[in-house]
Amino acid sequence: MKLPGQEDKHFEQVVRAYSADLYRYAYWLCRERFLAEELVQEAFLRAWKGWRTLRDPAATKAWLFTIVRNEYARAFARKRIDIVDVDVYELDIADSRPTVAGVEGMLAALPLAYREPLALQVLGGFSCAEIAAMLHTTEGAVMTRLTRARQALRTHEAGREKQKGAR
Amino acid sequence: MNCLDFRREKLADPRRLSTEAQLHVRDCAPCAGFAREIDESEARLAEAFSVRVPEGLADRMLLARRRTGRPRWAPWALAAGVMLAAAVAWNQLQDSPAEHYARLAIEHVLTEPGFLTEVEAGAPAALRTAVEEFGGRINGPIGRIRVVKVCPAGDGRARHIVFETPEGLATLILVPDKRVTSAAKANGKGLSALVQPAPRGHYVIVTDSQTATASVDRLIRNRVEWQM
Predict the structure, then answer these.
(1) Where is the domain boundary, A82, A110, A144?
(2) Bigger pLDDT: B210 or A102?
(3) Which pTM was predicted?
C-alpha cells in the first residue's frame, strides 16, 4: 500500500506519461479538441477517485483508456458508440471526402467502429486481445475491424497515387 | 502458414507477428514486400493519429485533480494558488457575486498565459458550439478566434476563449450555472474584467484596459444573440 504522498507522486507520473496519448485517443473518438481535453480531464478525475482500487500497476494504461472511452460514451449517452460492423468497402472512403487530403482525412471518414480499435492499437500499443477486452467484443471481431481499416487505408493511398499519376 | 494467413495477421497487428508469420516472411519475397508496405503506411498512420496536444495539458489535469476534495466554489482561485484569498472571496461572494467572479476571472487569466500565445485550427467552430451550448448564437464576426479551452469552474466546465480585436487580444470566459443578475466590473494586475449575465450562467470579458473591455463588451452584445 502506498502512502498518501507516494500516491500523489505516482498519479502525477501517470498523468505526465499518458495524458498526451489519452488526449489523442479522446480526440479521435469525438473529433473536437476542447471536448477531448474535457474527456481526459474527467477521466483523470475518475481515475484519481478510484486510484486505490487499482491493483495491477501494469494495467494502468488500459484502465485509463477505458475510462476515457466510458466518459465519451457518457458525454454522448444518446449517441451510442458505433459498434455496428459496417462493410468498410461500401463506404468508398477514398471518394467520400474529396476535400480532405491525406491519412488524417481518411481516419476522420472511417466509421468509429474501425477508427477506435485502430487508435487503441496505434496510440496505445494494445494487442487485439486487450482491445477486445476494452471494447467488450471478441478478438476475432477486433482483428477483422483492424484488417478492414488498414485495407481501407491502402485503398485510399492507392487511389491518391493513381490520381497523382493521372496528373 | 500460407501467404493469405500471413497478410491477415500483418494487417490485424503489424507489430506483433507470431513466430510462424516471422518464419513465413523470411522465406517469401512477395510477403516481405507486402510487410514493408504495411510498415511504411503504419508510420504514416501513427503520424496522422498524433494530433498536436495542447500545451500544459498534463499540468491542467493535475490542477483539476488537486482541486478535488476542495470546496467547489473557487477553482479559479485555487488555480491561482491563493487558497486564503479564495476563502475570503467566498465570504464576500455571498454579498456581491458578479464583482468577485470578475476578480476571479482576472486571477484565472493570469494563471493561463499560454492561452494568449496559442492558436488552434478548429477554434472558430469550437466557439460556435460553445456559445450555442451556452444558450447563444453568433450572428457576426467577433474577430479571429485563437483558442477555445475548457477550464474547471465549480461543478461545470467553463469555456475560455481568446480572440483578436482591434484593441488587442481579448479573453471571453463562458461560465455555466453561476448566474448573476447584473453586470459588474473589476480591475487589477493590469487587467480589466467585466461580468455579464447569460442564460446559462455568466460570461466574463478580460482585456488589458477598461476601454478595450468596454469595446469588446459592445462587440459581444452586438454579435451574440442570447436566448434569455
Answers:
(1) A82
(2) B210
(3) 0.58
